[in-house]
Design goal:
It contains 9 helices and 4 strands, in the order βαβαββααααααα. By secondary structure, it is α+β, with helices and mostly antiparallel strands. The two termini are about 30 Å apart. Bound molecules: benzoic acid.
């Protein structure tokens, strides 16, 4: 096997990174990338990540020619065009827009959950902005309620961009916000998540304890 020609700037705690890793495993491409561990925060960008990526966001993917792709949605699309199996992002039609919209809902959960994490773990308690924190949590609850009401059958139909994104968002809530106890309000989502969590791609990308 040849050495990986691409580098993925990676942190196992990031749900955005996890989406990419899950798709790589689901499509059999995990050996194509070397992982470069990094921990950028909102106040400490990582010098390696910044090269060719002024946003400093992870995941970022350095290609063999030195160019850099970001963010996670771009990298997912890139890798989904690089395997021979069924696309995990539908190429066109209603399915494309619906699956991407479900993925965007999951992205909304991740954005809010990561912001809450930064606010509560990095800022001193006296500086926490309670109404802002509450609205981030409300956003998460609204999305979960909508998925419970309207999307379970779609999520269960195949493990594609929508399902991968929702699974990684739920994994991040469990990892950083176990106090949210979302399962009692959304039992169908919880049952779906219990099943997909057993997939090798989810097991192999669990955030660190
Ligand atoms: C975290 O530790 O929760 C985290 C790390 C990297 C990106 C996003 C979240």
């Amino acid at each position: 096997m040849s050495a990986p020609s691409m580098t993925l700037f990676h942190n196992p705690a990031s749900p955005f990174v996890r989406k990419v890793c899950v798709l790589l495993i689901e499509t059999g491409q995990q050996d194509r990338v070397a992982l470069h561990a990094c921990m950028p925060t909102p106040v400490t960008p990582d010098a390696d990540v910044l090269q060719g990526n002024p946003t400093g966001k992870i995941p970022a993917l350095r290609l063999a020619d030195g160019s850099v792709l970001h963010d996670s949605r771009v990298i997912l699309d890139y890798f989904d065009h690089q395997h021979v199996g069924n696309p995990l992002i539908p190429r066109d039609g209603c399915a494309r827009w619906r699956r991407l919209t479900l993925a965007s809902m999951a992205e909304g959960i991740m954005d809010a959950a990561v912001l809450v994490r930064y606010e509560t773990a990095m800022r001193p308690p006296e500086k926490h902005w309670a109404p802002w924190l509450e609205e981030q949590r409300n956003k998460i609850r609204r999305v979960l309620a909508e998925l419970e009401r309207d999307a379970i059958a779609e999520l269960a139909s195949h493990f594609d961009i929508a399902a991968i994104s929702v699974a990684c968002a739920l994994g991040y809530i469990d990892f950083r916000h176990p106090d949210m106890q979302w399962r009692s309000d959304t039992p169908k989502l919880a049952a779906w998540y219990a099943e997909v969590s057993l997939r090798p791609s989810m097991q192999q990308t669990q955030p660190p304890l």
